[in-house]
Amino acid sequence: MTTTSKAEFLKYDRTLGVAAMEFRGFYYPVDAAVRGDGRIYGLSRSHEGDPRGVRVCMLDLESEYYGVFGSIGEGDGQFTWAASIAIDKDDKVYVGDEYLERISIFDADGNFLDKWGTPGTESGQINGPCGLAFDSDDHLYMSDHRNNRIQKFTRDGQYISDFGSEGSGDGEFDLPWGLTVSPGGDVYVADWRNDRIQRFTPDGDFVSKHGESGDGDGQFNRPSSVAVDGEGYMYVADWGNERVQILDPDGGFVMKLRGEATVSPWAQQFLDANLDESRLRANSNLRTAENIRGDSEHELSSHIEHIFWAPVSVKLDGAGRLYVVDRNRHRIQVYARA
Hints:
This protein has helices at residues 265-273, 275-282, 297-303; strands at 2-4, 10-16, 29-34, 40-44, 55-59, 65-69, 82-87, 93-97, 102-106, 112-116, 129-134, 140-144, 149-153, 159-163, 176-181, 187-191, 196-200, 206-210, 225-228, 234-238, 243-247, 253-257, 311-316, 322-326, 331-337. With 338 residues, the chain is mainly beta. The strands form 6 sheets. It has a 5-stranded antiparallel β-sheet, with no helix packed on it. A 4-stranded antiparallel β-sheet has the order 2-25-24-23, with no helix packed on it. The longest helix has 9 residues, at 265-273. It is globular. The relative contact order is 0.15.
């Protein structure tokens, strides 16, 4: 289910992951990060009913599994409400926790190294680190969600600067969520409750805004994440509309994705080992919605298996592939440039 207004821009490539409360797989993933060599770190938040799923799962594009790290709790290397993940130039992994109001740092293999963060509203204090992104100098930009601002830190948590305040005007935020630093250095923020993407200079000066509330092309309903490629194209997780949209550098609509998932290698291994489950699946029609109430995008997503259901995060790798964290389906859908 892909719609485009121009020449084909992205094409579906593959699906990664499988629903699993422990070890290999994801359980309500909320973010992902892709290392320069292709290793993927999928951050699962789980839910209150079963906290076992809280962890980071390491894999690659070929579904090779490299282990997990992290667990539920408040100790070193643990998470309570995991929210965001990013990787610095030394391949250290940073995870934001919006309950503990801290950043935990791990080495490339998931060994705990350090933590920093102080809750509060003053400069340098945090209240909901829901988006993390590094610039070319390894400064860490943070979407300080409930403080309605973006903060900039050194890797070890030293405060540098901040910008933004609560509101709906240019340069203001209403619960900003995901953010990214473009190859050119500008900062793009998914301004969640204002239903738009805002662009800033590295120093926080307002540049432009894109989108408005709605479900039409180029409109958003609670966008949760944004990625930007070297040409300036914007990839937006239009969370409330259950889709991903691509905009050109000026904010013009290019394409929207609704999801095209196939069975991942990990899921196929599960089916091969569980023949009753495999037979039931083979006799089911999972690509159409039957006996549902209404035709809202949310209802469709909750019944049709291959489309997005809560696409919460988007990330790009060095080859231009787009990784869509499909939260309620416990997977990542991958798209490549056509």
